[in-house]
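Appendix B. Chain record.
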Amino acid sequence: MNLSLLNAIGLPVQLVVRRLRTQFAGNENALFFIAVCLVGLLGGLAGAAFRWSLDMAVWLLWGRPDELIVAALGAPRFYRLGVPILGAGAAAVLAMFFSRLRRDRKGFPEILEVISIGGQTIQLSAALERASSSLMTLASGGAVGREGPMGQIAAAIGSRVGRSFRFSEDRVRILMAAGIAAGFAAAYNTPIGATLFVMEVIIGSFNMLFFGPAVIAAAISTLVTRVFVGPGPIYPPGSEYVMVSVWEIVPYLVLGFLAGLGSVLFQIAMERMYRLWDRIELSQLARMTLGGAVIGLLAAAWPFVLGNGYLPINLVLAGQLSLALMATLFFVKMIATSATLASGGSGGIFTPTMFLGAMLGGVFGGVLHAWLPDQTGSAGAYALAGMSGLVAGTTHAPFLAIIMIFELTQNYAIVLPLMLTAVMAFWTSQALRRTSIYTAELRRRGMEWEGTPQERLMRSLSVSDIMLPNVELHSQSLSLEKLVEIFNESRWLQLYIGDEDGRFVGIVELHEVKRFLSEQEAGPLIAADLVSEIPVVTPETSLVEVNEKLWLRDLGQLPVIDNEVDRRFLGIVTRRSVLGAFDREVLRRNALLAKMRTVEGTGFDYFELPAESQMAEVPVPTRMVGKSLQELHLRQEFGVSVIAIQRMDASGREQRIAPHAETVLERRDVLVVMGEESSVERLRGE
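Structure tokens predicted for this chain:
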């Protein structure tokens, strides 16, 4: 993305934001509502711009101003082979060019993690760069959907707007989620489905903090989309999409079971394809071009495999595809989508999932209707139910699947079959596979995504985040007298013992030493004689597992080692540290945040902040640059105390400076301050 163009777009937005912050100073809730509306508006406009760009790219590559598959059907076979190769190569060149800029280019799994857990931001420039590569993949026939890049751009817009308004991290995350809703709504013209996508897939629960902003952003984005695209459902409703008889409950449940199996098959195919491509040692250009060749070979024989599958789904619903072709396309599309993504292509997976469901349901319904024409509905009705089933099975979001397909067709008569098929597919898929198709990538990276959002948050934190280093490891050859002396001079209830090579061997507890001292005939003892075993953790251990170990043994702290083989002692993790992390990350209270060295100097403790207070990082406002802390009177004007200053030195390394009255603030400094939340937010608003 041309930086001058990005700045030209961003400058008016920054001016508007600055004006709004001045106008609504002191009323952050009103400002946040305006920000949500702005995210919905910009997300809808970005979606319309991406649609237009995609149409232009299709025209450029295929030479026809038509829908992708229509253009491909009118092209010779060698063209259907060559264009996907050319497009994949162009996408690879764009991806390689932007990767050299060393910018953060987050895909959907990373965005899901950022919104659910926080701690990072999504750069708009990086999202636009990734979208440009996705655009070439989609225009050339890559078997993925446009909802992926559209959602990523809108999420990045939410991040950018939140940071421009200088909202807290939590509110920036909410705006990113609202951006996802806006992008999804722009892709499908379905505001309710977009909201449910955020709730069920992104957040994992109906958290009202996210629900309201997602609704508003999705609604505004849909209105913008309908201005450019027009109203009405993507798939026109048909009067034949109904349940003909009550006994059709049985075949719809059977279809749900098959859809659940199909969902698992699709995920397995994706995983196997990723493993296959990971074993291919090629450059990114060669890898993606080879992936384009796979798509081209498939498209030469089956043009309907190209793109997101909008036209083939409509043909299935109209009953214009043969059973043999639908059965073939089910497997061919699965291969094409897996190959597109595994080779490095970028795009959404939601629309291809609906394609697979339509083919599966079309085949099932076509066979059933031919056998029992008077007792069953049309193949189109079963195709819609199949779409619902595959979506529910792959996303593990049955409510989304039901409402989404209903919104896409606006046919209420088909809702009951959608419900039956979606729920059965969800049960079947979940029984066979714990992860959804979206969270499987996070699981491959070692991150557990099951459980409540709070549990996922705690699983994302590890021992390395709260570990207390610089805890002494005592020699196992220490005498009993020396152990008593150490206990007398410290507050420790247990000492950590290691061998001559620094390997952790266990602990010596104070009550065990007392027991031996009380025995009249206790001979000369050393630490090795008093050592007892204790559970250990590593820096990668999640806090959920730490909490379980602390609870089961009723311990106050655990030793941290590098690994089970070397057992090099690194420090300890305490129950208080875990509680502090829970308080800070889940309850968002910052109560047990400040760590300090104890009076004895042998360990650390946590300082509990005063009621209603918090510690926060605040970028130095522009008007304060070049002034000393003594000149600014931050305590008197804002009611905050500066604890530290974070500053980058000439080599780009971060420094932490202890503030003094004469310390002069520099551009890009970050103040670590303590004060009431309202005071901190007033300082942010400067």
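Further analysis of this model is presented in Appendix C.
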